[in-house]
Amino acid sequence: MPSDGVTGDSVPSEPLKDDAVEVNVTSTEVPFHGAVWNIRRDAFDYNGQTIRREYVEHTGAVAVLVEDDEGRILLIKQYRHPVRSRDWELPAGLLDIEGEEPLVAARRELAEEADLEASTWEPLVTFNTSPGGSDEVLYVFHASNPGAAPQTFDREAEEADIEVRWVPLQEVVDGILDGRLHNSILSIAALALHAKKGARP
């Protein structure tokens, strides 16, 4: 029986699943308050040790992979200062309205960033963007049957010069695998949809 190479246990037959763990947090503080995110410092007990970690305290976010009836997906290009790049990505935004459900936020962000709405929505993938350094959870929805939103939005700052393009899914996947597209949300979402379509009979 194969082992996992760490604990020596046999590989179980049930599907892979992450385990939620509650630890005893012995102290917590916010040494840095930012305009959007804070840095939190925790001390906690784990395996008989006291461990200290700092991480970005994040509101969470949503993204939308919109597909038209030709199988093309909507990409937007905008400037991202930390990586000094105008990268291709999906319409996305923060869960920064208290009590707002992810699907409601996704609909709002699609309208605000691309002046679009869609009649069909389903969850595509949910993931932690950087679990070693942030508590952010990202909810991606697959939207189809798009149409013009009833109102358009004025965009400012980095969003003022957003470029919009409809691109075949395979072209996006090729760009990811060739190393030409680097946005993590786009990569995960496009590859997830590509895998989902490939799994269909």
Automatic annotation (TrEMBL):
Keyword Hydrolase recorded: yes
Protein name per Swiss-Prot or TrEMBL: ADP-ribose pyrophosphatase
Coiled coil regions, renumbered to chain: none
GO molecular function, a single term: hydrolase activity
Gene3D superfamilies according to UniProt: Nucleoside Triphosphate Pyrophosphohydrolase
UniProt domain Nudix hydrolase: residue ranges: 56-194
Pfam families per record: NUDIX
PANTHER family: ADP-RIBOSE PYROPHOSPHATASE, UDP/ADP-SUGAR PYROPHOSPHATASE
GO cellular component: cytosol
Source species, domain of life: Bacteria
One GO process term, biological-process aspect: nucleoside phosphate metabolic process
